[in-house]
Structures are given as structure tokens and as C-alpha cells.
Write a structure and sequence with these properties.
Length: about 375
């Protein structure tokens, strides 16, 4: 028998209590019973997003919420800035271009955070931008961008909104949406929300809702005005993912019980422990200057096949991690530490990494990385 461990940045492990809640007989969504579930979910999401705004639930992956942000905020001919620091920053560019929006793409070296001063310079050059699109935690590189600084910069421009992909950041890193004056915040269910894929979430500031009123890009399923009207009645415009929302109610209860400050501290501690373990093994972090607390990206050591490392770790030791994407494929591997993960999950992953490196011929002292992690976690 081989026990398996899921250490990818999505999907992530699901707590047993959440699985059990979703296994209950399904209910009909046009009932008072569902409305009670949805009312609890809506309040819990406000707590998690740290906002007084409505947080809308959409039946899609996180990319659906990203597309919803674009089509509800913009009009043909609008000009925007997109921060491309990896695969998911690039996705903002691709979505905007798909709708004919003029994109000023800010390319950031992989493994590095965006310099807020560069964004400030772009905004100050005299061109009128409708929005700045960026990621918080760039899942493809393990980088966390300074969203607090970006929000402060963008908030000075009345006609420009800041739109943040927080798909692997929300529920991991402190993101006070209202206090920071973030205009649009999106996330997905299969990350720190500890659910299967299938739900996306989006919250808009009053400033962003003002742009929604004037948007002229085509929209139907992702019409946020329609969703807002229905969800304020604890209903949805279209058939919702009922079982996932029931599971989400349980997740949000767990988060409230843990409390946000403890939630963020747990993720920060796990992230620090893994980074210390990686350094103890003589490996190099891919994003050393601004690493995300959601996952750690590591350079594949010389002489090792990066794809084989990921495959071997899964097939022989049952620990599934993620490899690199696009131009980083085979060059890095990524180990997540978000959601329903604890100290011993991390220690197991480090131990499996040590044994995998040994199996592939890389010199390693077994237990060295584990000990470094234990020093932080103990």
C-alpha cells in the first residue's frame, strides 16, 4: 500500500468534514434551505476577503472570475496595464486581448516581483488607463508581488482600477481588500479554500462598480450586475454548484474558528520551514527576494531531470508536487503549503524530496532538510 500526499498549488487536499458535507443528498437551489446556506456563505466570504462589499460566487474555475472582471469593467478601445510576471500574469494579457482591449504589458523577469515604481511611472506618463491587472501570488514562479504598494499607487487615479488575481493568495496572505483599497479581488475554490475546482469568487469596490455601469464589452453568463441582483437575494442567476457551496460553508466555518491572523501565521510558518529545508539541502530558491507563502519554487539542481524528479517523487513515494510551466518546464519544481496542510505534511514532502534526490544520483544527506524544517516547526 502507498499512501498519497497532494502538495500541488491546486487542487489542494480537502478536509474530511468538508467531503462529508458535500456527500449529503443534494438540495434544490430555488428553496429557502439553499438560501440559508448561501446567506452563510456570503457572510463568510466577506470575512475572508476583509471587505464590506458583496463577494459574488461564480460556477467556474478562477479564470472565469478573471474573465468576468475584464468584460464587466472595460469597453472597446480601453487601455490597460497588465503585469506579466509568469503564466498567470500573462493570462490577464491574453484575456484582455481576446476582447480587443489595448494592452500595455509590463514584463517582469521570472522569479522577480514587479517594481511598484515602474507601474507608477507607466501611470504617470500621461496615457489614460482604465485598469491595472496583476497577480498577488504568481503560482508559476512562487513570487508574491507587493499589492499593498500597487494599490496605494493606483488609488490615486480616479479612472483606473486595480484588479488582483489572488487565486493562490487569498486565505494564505493577509489581504485587507477595503483597507488597501483594492478595487477587484478574485480567487478560486481549489486553492486555500480547500474545495474541488468549480467555484470562483469576485469582489468589487464602489469605484469598480462605477466602471461596470459603463462597460460595453459583451457578456452574458458573466454579467456581474445580474449576479449581484440575484445574490443579494441569496440566489444565483443560473444553476449554482450546490454541493460545492455546501462544502464552502463548512470551509468558512473552519476559517472563522482558526481566525485570520492564525491562518496567515500558519502559512507563513510552513513557508519558512520549507524554504529553510530547501536551503539546508543546498538547493536554490527560484524566487528568493519575494517568495509567496502559498508555494515554494525551487531550481532543479544540475544533472537532474526536472520532469523525472516530479514523476519519481509521485510514483515511488506518493508525494505529488508540481513542475515548471512553459519556459520553466523541467527547470524548477514547486511544492505547495496552502490550505489543508500541516507540519507533518510538510515534513513528509521534504523527506520524499531528499530520497528522490538520492535516488536520482544527487548528493544529499538524508534528514538534513527535515531537521531544518523541524527547527522552524517545533
Amino acid at each position: 500500500m502507498k499512501k498519497t500526499y497532494l502538495m500541488t498549488p491546486g487542487p489542494t487536499p480537502i478536509p474530511p468534514s468538508v467531503l462529508l458535507s458535500m456527500a449529503q443528498p443534494i438540495i434544490h437551489h430555488r428553496t429557502e434551505e439553499f438560501e440559508q446556506v448561501f446567506a452563510e456563505v456570503r457572510q463568510g466570504l466577506k470575512y475572508l476577503f476583509q471587505t464590506e462589499a458583496d463577494v459574488l460566487s461564480i460556477c467556474s474555475s478562477g479564470t472565469g472570475a478573471m474573465e468576468a472582471a475584464v468584460v464587466n469593467l472595460l469597453s472597446p478601445g480601453d487601455r490597460v496595464i497588465t503585469v506579466n510576471g509568469g503564466k498567470f500574469g500573462q493570462r490577464w494579457t491574453q484575456i484582455c486581448q481576446s476582447y480587443g482591449v489595448s494592452v500595455d504589458e509590463l514584463f517582469v523577469k521570472r522569479g522577480q516581483p514587479v517594481d511598484p515604481d515602474v507601474v507608477a511611472s507607466r501611470l504617470a506618463n500621461g496615457d489614460r488607463y482604465s485598469a491595472v491587472f496583476t497577480t498577488f501570488s504568481e503560482t508559476s514562479t512562487g513570487v508574491a508581488h507587493d499589492i499593498g504598494a500597487l494599490a496605494k499607487i493606483v488609488s490615486a487615479y480616479p479612472e483606473t482600477v486595480l484588479v488582483v488575481d489572488a487565486i493562490t493568495a487569498l486565505g494564505v496572505i493577509d489581504i485587507p481588500m477595503d483597507d488597501w483599497r483594492i478595487d477587484v479581488l478574485v480567487t478560486g475554490s481549489q486553492k486555500a479554500l480547500m474545495l474541488p475546482p468549480g467555484l470562483a469568487f469576485i469582489a468589487l469596490s464602489d469605484k469598480a462598480w462605477g466602471k461596470v455601469e459603463n462597460s460595453r464589452l459583451p457578456k452574458y453568463y458573466f454579467d456581474l450586475k445580474k449576479e449581484l441582483k440575484m445574490q443579494q437575494k441569496n440566489q444565483s442567476a443560473y444553476t449554482p454548484a450546490i454541493s460545492l457551496l455546501i462544502g464552502l460553508r463548512e470551509v468558512l466555518k473552519m476559517i472563522r474558528e482558526e481566525r485570520l491572523e492564525c491562518l496567515f501565521l500558519r502559512h507563513k510558518t510552513l513557508a519558512k520551514a520549507l524554504r529553510e529545508a530547501i536551503c539546508a539541502l543546498g538547493l536554490d530558491l527560484f524566487a528568493p527576494t519575494s517568495p509567496s507563502d502559498a508555494l515554494t519554487a525551487v531550481k532543479v539542481p544540475d544533472g537532474i531531470d526536472g520532469k523525472k524528479l516530479v514523476k519519481h517523487m509521485s510514483q515511488k513515494y506518493g508525494v505529488t508536487i508540481a513542475g515548471g510551466q512553459d519556459e520553466l518546464k523541467g527547470n524548477i519544481f514547486r511544492i505547495a503549503h496552502l490550505g489543508y496542510l500541516g507540519h507533518f505534511d510538510l515534513i513528509t514532502a521534504v523527506s520524499a524530496l531528499e530520497m528522490t534526490l538520492r535516488d536520482l544520483g544527487h548528493p544529499v544527506t538524508l534528514g538534513k532538510g527535515v531537521a531544518a524544517a523541524q527547527d522552524i516547526l517545533g
